[in-house]
Amino acid sequence: MLPKPDxxxxxxxxxxxxxxxxxxxxxNLAAALAVHGLKTLVIDLDPQGNASTALNVEHRSGTPxxxxxxxxxxxxxxxxxxxxxxxxxxxxxxxxxxxxAEIELVEMGNRESRLKEALSAEAIDETGxxxxxxxxxxxxGLLTVNAMVAAREVLIPIQCEYYALEGLGQLxxxxxxxxxxxxxxxxxxxxxxxxxxxRTKLADQVTAEVRGHFGDVVLKTVIPRNVKVSEAPSxxxxxxxxxxxxxxxxxxxxxxxxxxxxxSTNGSRSxxx
Length: 273
Hints:
Rossmann fold; alpha/beta; eight-stranded mixed beta sheet; 41% helix
């Protein structure tokens, strides 16, 4: 069993670059915490609905989803589904309806804080979760801003490849803007290195560069390139359900343990960035 956090943690998983392991990390970290008895909720805020697919929850058009939650048409609890992979693993799915949400939100009052309003303490209490992971689309648009306004922590996955840090400055300056104008409590608490290939010198260079730049915010655990991690979503599973003995699954277990230990010893570990 991993320790419960001192208080509920809401983490936005963000990186505007696609293909960095963002959704993969959100669902597998949530699944790993769930395996250890912590109740976790994944909010799929990406219109592609990949997190919903990996957790095998219904996300056909018409299913109560995060879209209706943002519009205030259904409550968080009404849109929350339990993944068949664990009773501790919950998901608010994304349907194709979310694709038009950014345009609709522009017309609305409090457009940047719609998700925050839906994720009130009372609403999350109804679900009884210890952790909330918000999986963002690969952009810095209004959906991602909503995720940042609703959370206290940002988790940034960075792939161990050339150009890894490209575009990161833009993400950090957006986080800074949200912090200044919309959510003073927001901070980068966690950076997770993904797609590490130990056979290449480049992976080690990127790892050293990221650790040198961001220090203790970077988890000690790195997620290796692993075919099982890539295959799992096509079976509607996290890698922990698909192949719990694989290197990918074990790495996500280790990363989740680090996150949980930080949360119980440092409050919500509000980060140093």
